[in-house]
Amino acid sequence: MIPKESRGRQRLTALEICSEKDMRDIKDLLEKAESGSDNRNIKDDGGSQKLGNEEILKLREDIADSSKIIETLVENSTSFNSKTVYSQEKYLKRKEKKYFEYVQIRQPTIRLLAEIFYRQDPDKIMGIRVDSLSQIISYSNVNSCGNFLLFESGTNGLLPAAFINAIGANTSGKLVHMHPGNVPQKQAIQALNLPEEQLDRCISVNIYSVLREYYQGAEEEEDTEESAAKKPKLEDDKSLKWKMDNKKACDLMKEKFDSLIVVSRDHPLNIVKELLQFMKPSRPVVVFNLSKEI
User: Fold this and answer.
1) pLDDT tens per residue across span 201-215
2) Which of 71, 167, 215, 251 is surrounded by the fewest CB atoms within 10 Å?
3) What keywords are assigned to this protein (predicted)?
């Protein structure tokens, strides 16, 4: 991040591509500088730096190279040469972290998304850490050639994203993702940027709607020509997709599933009892809940 201009207290920066070679190696400064035997005579009173705050801010605006800023700070430090080599290294690393500003662009992964969601707000993903997520995936025995049933009541799409990612692309595995809301949470799924064919094998349905259709069958509603003409095409597409997803889920429910995963904010007993009938014999059942005892 290269300083561009300042607007009052706001400091605008521009992004430039750099590599690891562009990052300053602190050993160069350590070889040139003298060092002390110990830190007994160093006083941490804030007066060892000759440059004031305004001078340092002006230095950051005028000089784009962070290594030169650090060199200037070292030259104007009265206690740097009295520090031990270990203390000097810590000092330089701290200054590098402060003045060498960079943005690292990384390809999204399940581990990275789990860490980001947990750091932002653990409650939104039910406090599921990376280790808990890995245990859920491991116990469920998810693979590329099976049908899996997942019920989750709000994890920002982290659970369905983890399972459809574990199933993999260009495979025969399918995931039925049941949720209690009107719209499924798919933030994590969208962040992974998965291929379309893999996304099509993640069937998200409302649990109450799909169970009603499974037991009672799809209810056909006859609309008049006048009401049909008033409906926007977008609503027709959404309604059609909703019915198709319910039908796909019902077909898989009749074939039975290879694994059942329930991640619920509420008590999961009734949900597990209801969904157990759709399981094949001797298949794993994984339950995650915020309560210590269920």
Assistant:
1) 999 999 999 999 999
2) 215
3) Nucleus, tRNA processing
